[in-house]
Fold:
Amino acid sequence: MSVVDDEDATLRERLADEPVPALRVLAVVAVLVAVEFGALANLVMSLPWDAVGAALPGFLQGAAATIAGVGDGLAGLPTLLSRSVIDNAGYQLPSGEWVGTFMGLSPAAAWLLRVALIYAYGFVWLLVGWWSYLVYRDNYRHADWAPVDDMVGRFRNHSWGLFGLAIIFAFVVLAVFAPALGPTTVDANIADPYLHSIEYYSEETGGVEEIYVGDANGESQSRGQGGENVGPMQYDQYDRFHPFGTLPSGKDLFTFMAAGARVSLFIGVASLVLAGGAAVVFALATAYYKGLVDLGIVIASDSIQALPQLLVIMLASFVLSGTWLANLYNGGVVLALLFGLTGWPGLWRAVRGPALQVSEREWIDAAKSFGQRPSVTMRKHMLPYVVGYLLIYASLTLGGVIIGVAGLSFLGLGINAPTPEWGRAVSAGQPYVATPSWHISLLPGILIVIVVTGFNALGDGIRDAIDPQSDVETGQQDQTAAAGGGA
Amino acid sequence: MVADSSRSDAGTAAEPADDRLLEVENLQTVFHTERETIRAVDGISFGIAEGETLGLVGESGSGKSVTARSIMGLVDSPGELLPDSSIRFDGRELTGLSETQYESVRGGGVAMVFQDPLSTLNPVYTVGNQIEEALSLHRGLSGLEATEKAIELLEDVGIPDAARRVSEYPHEFSGGMRQRAVIAMALACDPDLLICDEPTTALDVTIQAQILELLADLQEEHGLSILFITHDMGVIAEVCDRVAVMYAGEVVEQAPVVELFENPRHPYTRGLLRSIPSTQRGADRLETIEGEVPTPNAPATDCRFAPRCPEAFDACREVHPEPVPVATETADADADHTAACLLYPEDETREQAVDRHAIEDAPPGAGAVDSGGESR
Amino acid sequence: MSRWSYFARRVLLMIPIVFFGTTITFVILRMGPIDPAAAVIGASGDTEAYTSVRRSLGLDQPLWLQYVDYLRDLFTLQFGYSWVVNRGRPVWELIGVYAPRTIWLGFWSVMLPLFVGLPLGFYAGLNPNTLSDYVASFGGIVWRAMPNFWLAVIFVAVLTQSEQLFGFQWESWLVETNIVTPPELQRLWVPENFFGAFKAILPAALVLGSASMGNEMRIGRTAVLETKNENYVETARAKGVPGRKIVYKHVFRNALIPLVPIITGEAFLLLGGSVLVETVFSINGLGYLFYAATINADLPLVGSLMFFFILLSVGINIVQDLLYTLIDPRVGYGGEGA
Structure:
């Protein structure tokens, strides 16, 4: 967004001139990546590559499979902050001693330690990100001052926006490090409990026994009355620690929530990339060409908005169920596509105003007058102005998408069972809200409220940073954005 | 023209002038922010006689508009008038009035015309509706009677086809017409004093002249006093009887209009006059005053103009100047001309003058110093 | 361009929107991977039944002819029959049965925010940076972030256990009502019936209106805050208009302008939300009907319902433009306020 032209070559030159600060940043990043390489590879592999793979022609699929194999191999590499290094699974001997856990700590303490370390690691990334921005700004940016500096400055003083940022940071870390954060894994505890087993100390036999996770889950159910409840921060009878308690099926709720966060975040981001991309392209095109192009897109977007979003997504995901598309990422890809296709009109409406405004500026006329190509004018002179506004609504819409996806899975649509999704936990806990097993419905709901509030706060913060002249007009679009189709 | 021409001690307005319609004395309006207290208006005094037009001139940020709003009682939290301030209108003290008490003053006694005629009219009501609102408040008119009076007022301010336009919305009026409508609305209140806050700044030059002419006609017709706020010296020359020059919350010079233009004493006033294009005929380029008006956030201990002043000397940074009479021999004896500058009085040595300012400034409320000068 | 010709132009623009919206539905239903006829007869796989269903749905026609027929039927309001959910019943009849409940629910979930959220927001805007402002603002933000379905679950649980939790029984309080049944909407003009129906719908309406309430609070607050600082408000004060009248005449009406699209936009969002809320509260309304039709693959019913929803949405849009035109004289004037 710098005022002065930042051609690649000149940036490269500036880097070559003064490589030390950049190398320093690079070194820190390399160390950070190295200690968690396995986890990052794991994250990369968890993305729905099948979608890409299926679209490839036959001869490439072999190659893709090889790459996938390598990727899976990398994902298996040891990492510093993983379950295997700081293990929270173990059993307690009658003497009170813990066996199998990290340094003999109690599972709760081991788990908390791991969570704390992972969040600290995430926070270091945040700091490095901020630091590299400073390094870029002070050493390599051509302009001493750019409008973005003021925006960053305003945002730093915006406590409500920072609050949102903190929550979103926590949420993103939860999603990204989901496999390492859960006290157990989705695989072992939720997807295939009868393919995994755990050890526990049996008082009956007086020795260490082994039991299938599935069988153990049967004994750790939360079904309200009758003593069948494993609440938040409690152990079950197999010495397994459940930070959020268990589901009615006896599965671990925190593991479920962490994996669900990943699904929500993927759908949210993917759908927004789609919708945001379309919105920006259309907004720039309508602002540049106006007239018929504008009218056409107005009608198209109004037509899509005339359909109740949630109902259309419900219908379309039902119609598409059973096709190959619906199985990608357990239905996540379809949902992302549908939220994207139905969501762009809202985003487009939000950035159309700013785009039109900027298109009225003299510098656009100037660019036109000396014969710059439209695509270049739009990209260089209009896009930077529009992107900020897009961020505002993207943040607000993300909250809405999370609510919408949860609402669909509450109805049993969208994400295929048993893949974790927050809405399904609410639905599973529905009969137990007013019982000792209240946590099943309440905790996921409260998490949704917090995350959505966080996204709204972040959006407010960005808006005030970009456009301190506030906001009744821009406020209009919020409602649809943050509403998730009314879920 | 000048009401208290019999007085020679006009310097610090120590004694109230009973025959003045508006008497502002030591007005201090401050705004509290988180970090500091901004002294937007910092102890200014002036008066307006019946039928007189006082011009308040200064750069943006000098406190002109805040002065107007203080008189209108429109200063809201975080702003407030400091306790020593006094605003007397028609013999009645306005500071300390409750909001309800003030409502009878606003409009009825003092009416105001704002700078931007588009935003001063409520877009969702017809022009007639907004004039009739004032009529019902201050003249007890309603219904058809009010409409007729509104049409009459619109005709008075020179709006053609008033009977039709009375039921139109502000956005259907042109800029100049809107300002006429705003003036009609102010007149509907039947005020004695009209405060015009840069009423022509947002208008085209030709329209400006028409509006100024209209104001002059109306003043004659209704016997209005006018407080005319502007940053435009040209406008001042055209409409005012007397002028007060404001700088950084203070009145730095006050004089009848002809005297001020012919014989500006304060360096700031001279700078202002030199930056008017029309008085510079023949010059290659306009002079400008470098720098900006500072934001006063503490009681003054120096001359606030010193950093920009071409004639500043050391004492200017240590002594706060007080208004002193500066009428010259050539001018009318009762010219009532004061300036707040350490260069004056001219008939004293620089040290004497500086000492005089230092003493006058020292005790709060001091100012009853005779124009003798030997009071060391 | 005058206000009313602007309004007329907006209404005219609705025609292509209905047309395209319907086309999107057609594409999803007929060009998607699901064969409506197969979905109707289910897994039985009887070839004869299949052919006859195909014929009566017109699926043996070429696609363009199907499209023309589809549009013609809908635009002449011939909504056809349900095939699975309530076999053989005309769709209009189903709408007649299900719609009143949704309308009753929707009406109150628009009204409650309007008469609770909006005044709270205006109040907060008039008294900014006071404790009540913070409470209202923060409450609005959190209230708005709550997912409807979750809030509904909590409401149902709390109300059914109200005896144990609060020591009073919601169901028998004042009027006997159930919590998770459709409201009785017969003879509403009898005060007792009216109140019963109101009480029965109240929890669901509060849930469905929650997002709107939070929004209207928030935007109402900013709108008042901004309007309060407008020059015309200062002008009104300068001419001596009393404080109370300034608020009613000069602040509220202007602050309402940016709220119009919010209120109508939310009315439309309620349609989507009604599916979840009606499911949790077992209110057999249109949302529930659509949901049932979808999961039972009653595609003809789905298509007709969707068209009905499009008409509703367009209707709401027209109401919005009408309100705009009435409330803001600048509408259609040189592009302002449009």
About this structure: Chain C has two domains: 20-91, 98-295. Chain C has a mean pLDDT of 85. The radius of gyration of chain C is 24 Å.
